[in-house]
Amino acid sequence: MKQPRALIIDDDDPIRSLLSTIVRHQGISVDTARDGTEAIENLDRDGYSVVVLDLMMPRVDGYAVLDHMREHQPELLNCTILATAVPRQTLDLDLQDEVFMVHTKPFDMQQLIADVRRCAHVDAA
Q1: Model confidence over 2-50: pLDDT tens digits?
Q2: In terms of residue numbers, what domain contains 29?
Q3: N or C: the chain end with fewer CB closer than 10 Å?
Q4: Exposed e or buried b for every residue in 87-114, given b needs 16+ CB within 10 A?
C-alpha cells in the first residue's frame, strides 16, 4: 500500500517544523511550504492525502491556495485542514469552500493529529 502524503503549509517556521515532525510520526510522508507560492508549486507536482493549511501568509495567502485547489484539485478540499489564527466567526464569513476541519491556534494537538490521521486514512494505533 502506498504511504500517505501530507503537505504542511505555514509561514511560521517553528509551527511548520512541529507539525511536520508530528505528522511524520504518524507514518505519513511530509512536504512543507512556507507560503502559498510554494504550496501551489507542490500541489501541482505531487499527490497528497491531506493538506494542513495556514491562511495568513506572505506573498500568496491560504485563501489563494484554496482558490487554486478549487480550480485544479477540488477533491483535495475534503482532505484539507485549516490550521489558522483567524477567528472562527471570521472564517465562517470568508470561507467559500467546504474543508475537512478547522483548527484555530493554539491547536488541540491530539485532535489535530486525529484529524490528519483520518484524512490520510491511517488506521488508529
Answers
A1: 789 999 999 999 999 999 999 999 999 999 999 999 999 999 987 899 9
A2: 5-119
A3: N
A4: eeeeeeeebeeebbbbbeeebeeeebbe
Task: Return the amino acid letter for 64.
Answer: A
Q: Specify the pLDDT at position 99.
A: 83
Question: Does 14 map to a domain?
Answer: yes
Please report, in angstroms and rounded to a whole number, the separation of the first and last CA atoms in the chain. Answer: 17
Whether the model pTM is above 0.70 = yes
**In whole angstroms, what is the distance from residue 36 CA to residue 29 CA?**
20
CATH number at residue 84: 3.40.50.2300
Asked if residue 53 lies in contact with residue 97, where contact means CB atoms within 8 angstroms, the answer is: no
